[in-house]
Amino acid sequence: MHKTTKKTSVGFAENLLTLEKNQIAMIILRFLLIAFNVAIISFLIYRMVDVIRRPLEKSKKAMILTGGALLLLAPLGIFLGFFAASPQYFLVYPVAIFIFLYLTKQLSIR
After folding, report:
1. 81 Rama sector, left if φ>0, alpha if ψ -120 to 50, beta otherwise
2. Helices 21-53, 87-109: inter-axial angle, 10-degree rounding
3. How confident is the model at residue 82 (pLDDT cuts 50, 70, 90)?
4. 63-72 long-range CB contacts below 8 Å, 24 or more apart?
5. pTM for this structure?
6. What is the Cα–Cα distance from 45 to 39, expressed in whole angstroms?
């Protein structure tokens, strides 16, 4: 005998109601992390464009743009699978972004 199973279509709202509290918390944390990363990367690009427009020595400008490009390519490398995301990456990358933005800010003050 062939049994048929009845498939029910469950909507997004019904799925959301069945999630546990810790799952909802993780969804919110992931959303906030993505939003934070978008803001930081946008500001990084803004600072790089600002450096391009400023009258600086070519060597300083090249160093800043190379560093900024590497910082922009690091998450893309993880996303495309060139290298794995490690705990060291998650510790070093935010510090590198902060130092880069701090140094570009210091150059714009002078």
Report:
1. left
2. 40
3. confident
4. 64/100, 64/103, 64/104, 64/107, 67/100, 68/44, 68/100, 71/44, 71/96, 71/97, 71/100, 72/41, 72/44, 72/45
5. 0.64
6. 10
